[in-house]
Amino acid sequence: MPAATVASVTVVCLENIHCSRSLREAPGLAKEVSEILQQDLTIEETAQNVWNALWPPRKRRQAAFHVFGMELLALMDLEATNNFFATFFNLPPFFWRGFLGSTLSSSQLIAFALVTFVLAPFSIKARLVWHLIANPAGGYMISQYFGGAQEHIKPASGQPQQKLEVTAALLYMSLAELSLLAGQQTLI
Question: Transmembrane segments in this chain: where (predicted)?
Fold first, then answer.
């Protein structure tokens, strides 16, 4: 199948991830919300509990991961998109099927990202690292995985920004070291 067709089919599948997940999770969520509504809580407490039922930390991490990936894909030209999807479909089926079916846990998504990074050509590795460092979706994803309940990493927020800078520097150095070991040109 031509890479452009694979990319188009994959984007359609990704757009349906949230729909299939919503349908799959609706009965359990409806039960949980029903139980919350039966409690003697204030409006604020009810709203907070329903929000937490809809968006527990694991779902926020998964959503942040998907947003990061979709924003990265939206910025790629055709050649980069083709390279990305060639890598994507060279992953073990557990990963690409799990990603498309939205069945990977947030920790499995990290494993998915690491395997993707290892298999990707240098140009995709560079885009991934740059997107993680420079795009707000990268900071948001990092905060969801490592920052607990923080809203997201904001440039003028002091301590969280320092964490982002340290993480970005470590990732950048790791990529440079990996490329040297592979005998490829570096970003530095």
Answer: 94-120
* Distances, alpha carbon 39 to alpha carbons 5, 35, 44, 73, 135, in Å: 51, 7, 13, 43, 41
Question: Is residue 51 scored above 60 in pLDDT?
Answer: yes
Contact call for residues 89 and 96 (beta carbons, < 8 A)? yes
Q: Does residue 144 carry a pLDDT above 70? A: yes
What secondary structure letter does DSSP report for 39? S
Mean pLDDT of 110-129: 93
The amino acid sitting at 56 is P
Tell me, what amino acid is at 106?
Answer: S
**Whole-number Å distance between alpha carbons of 21 and 63:** 12
Provide the mean pLDDT of the chain.
Answer: 77
Coil vs helix vs strand at 101: coil
CA distance 65 to 86: 20
- First-to-last C-alpha distance (Å) of the chain: 37
DSSP E strand stretches across 57-146: none
